Amino acid sequence: MGLWLLRRIGQILPTLLILSFLIFGLQQLMPGDPALILAGEERGDPQVLAQIRAELFLDRPLWEQYLRWISRVVVGDFGFSWRIREPVGALILEKLPVTFQLAGMAFLIAVLIGVPAGIVSAVKRDRPVDWATNGVALFGISTPNFWLGIMMILLFSVELGWLPPSGYVPLTEDPLQSLATTIMPAFVLGSGIAGVLMRHTRAAMLTALAQDYVRTARAKGLAERVVVAKHALRNALIPVVTLGTIEFGRLLAGAVLTEQIFTIPGFGKLIVDAVFNRDYPVVQGVVLATALIFVLLSLVADLLYMAINPRLRTA
């Protein structure tokens, strides 16, 4: 187990190195000159522009800029934001808990809705319950987040006045108010993921219920709930775990639009502001941190496989 873990970590390092190349290289394709934006009213002065480029090392070759950036990243220094002059690492640590809370709540909503619905749909195949759950799942997958978010604001904030339409309160300051400000965006994000989880759980359960070991369990006289929960579900969870880790990573990286609609100061708003202001260090730091989270989630998925199916520990 320890050797396998070391081997997996060894695979993570070259993956992150390749991703750093892509992040830095693709960023250079962004239109616009950061020096022009930072110069403000003095953008017409060539001396000011030359000074800014020299201070930010924008006048150096790209390979030198990359080596300077990656050598600092290796020791945990993501540099400073060009626009607000704050450490990028501090900005990431400030915004990441916000997005983690939002993504965590959305994922919890998705799991609580999608997995049980998928199990019921598989057990009650080709019955009204199956058709209804498939219809709800299709609605969740098909509905755009921005439309659902606006509709929920109109209903629960404008018409009913139950929840605040926007803003964010940290969980440490007021847990109830924090829940009130994040429950709507979390449901908006989680509804689509719930539909995806439901469809995959249903497919995995149908495959598991058709296996010989399930028929053997039923032939032994075991109760149907025991057959479903103990024998079928445990084996069906492996592909669902894979999907779940991928979707959780997507929630962290893909909450940009939802955070903009509900004015939540998370990762999404941070990177949108950085892109508009050509704040390269912030863009590079946020995207690299997101990539690292994706890679770590893949490792977590492998560990969960072994917890669910002990046979994989000796594979």
TrEMBL record:
The chain crosses the membrane at residues 12-30, 102-123, 135-156, 176-197, 286-308. Residues 96-305 form the ABC transmembrane type-1 domain. InterPro entries: BPD_transp_1_N, MetI-like, MetI-like_sf. Keywords: Cell membrane, Membrane, Transmembrane, Transmembrane helix, Transport. It comes from the Bacteria. Gene3D superfamilies: MetI-like. PROSITE patterns: ABC_TM1. Its main location: membrane. It is found in: Cell membrane. Belongs to the binding-protein-dependent transport system permease family. This is Peptide ABC transporter.
